[in-house]
Amino acid sequence: MKITDIEVIHLRVPPLDQPCEWGEDALIVKVITDTGLVGIGESDTSPVVAKAVIEAPGSNLYCYGLKSLLIGENPLEIQKLWDKMYWSSNYLGRRGAGIHAISAIDIALWDIASQYYQVPIYMLLGGKYRDKIRAYGTFIPADTPGENKIIARKLKEQGFTSLKFGGGILGDDDTTDYEIVKAVREELGAEFELQIDLASKWHTYGRALGMFKRLDEFNLNWIEEPVLADDMRGYAKLSGVSGAKLAGGESLTTRYEFKDFLKYAQPDIVQPDITRCGGISEMRKIYDLSSMYGTKLVPHGFSTGILLAATVQFLAATNDGDLMEYSQTTSPLFTSLVNNLIPFDNGFVTVPDCIGLGVELNEDLIEKYKID
Length: 372
Ligand code: MG
Fold this sequence. Notes:
By secondary structure, the protein is α/β, with parallel strands linked by helices. The protein is built from 14 helices and 13 strands. The chain has helices at residues 47-55, 66-70, 78-88, 96-117, 121-124, 145-157, 174-188, 205-214, 232-238, 254-265, 279-292, 305-316, 332-335, 363-369, and strands spanning 3-12, 25-33, 38-43, 132-139, 162-166, 193-197, 222-224, 245-248, 269-270, 296-297, 323-327, 348-350, 370-371. Strands 4, 5, 6, 7, 8, 9, 10, 11 and 12 form a 9-stranded mixed sheet that branches. A 4-stranded antiparallel sheet has the order 3-2-1-13. α4 crosses α11 (279-292). The chain is globular. The mean pLDDT is 97. Magnesium ion (MG) binds next to loops.
């Protein structure tokens, strides 16, 4: 079996000259083989940049576009191809968008391997630890405490036993943050599992420390990305200052960045995104590293049903992968790109015993939102 082509698809809901929030654009890849088997992957990144990383012609020893490296290769040699992509793109890649693009292709290669061997991806990864995975709901907060109470109430009624909010206005003003957390906590009850995500918007250690202490009365499960992941000293000083666990890492890529983050930032929870960190192959290595540091891995996931399917297959094959994120975005790229989106059902998602990722793409929707 040989790879004959890689198709890169950029999807976008708002027009290119208008702002695009989370979940409203996507980068999909199809790795095509001479046997008719096709693998699907995605990356939650800047589609224009990742597309260029894949399609660029080779220009020197370490500046190859990924597609030129893979044509003619055997897609079953997943680790060998990962290494080839990493090394031969390392001037333009190594981290960031270079690894995001590798992630999309790696996921597609696992999809092909599962179809070729006719066993689920979780089986290729070593076996299935669980039939269902608890899912927490993530919502972007509205501007007033009252509106957020209503959102939280509706999600609890849908069956969520764990919720997170972040983005929007969270992190803009300390007193507003306090009032929103207070309102949501009152609505959900004292023991409901609740976490918040600052998207690094507290900026400094000093401000974050004040907020960790101020919010301690609300029994938060975790506080995510209080400051930028590059401020590992700030993270380390925040570790253990309140009852809330310290979480972060969605912007990090590769085992190398996570090794430093685990060692120096001392988080309680790491949150690699399978479509950014290096794909299923690299996620396994990051999981193993996290285990060695006694740190829980709870993946970031806020794009399409392709990410969701890859994340579920990965988590099913880990000893400790019992919690995942379930987006509450209304973007059609989340709700409708994949016809058979893995559903949230009464607190959990069920692990599909499918061959490959098992995603059926909505080709009409792809035609509608495709950017050439
Ligand atoms: Mg986050």
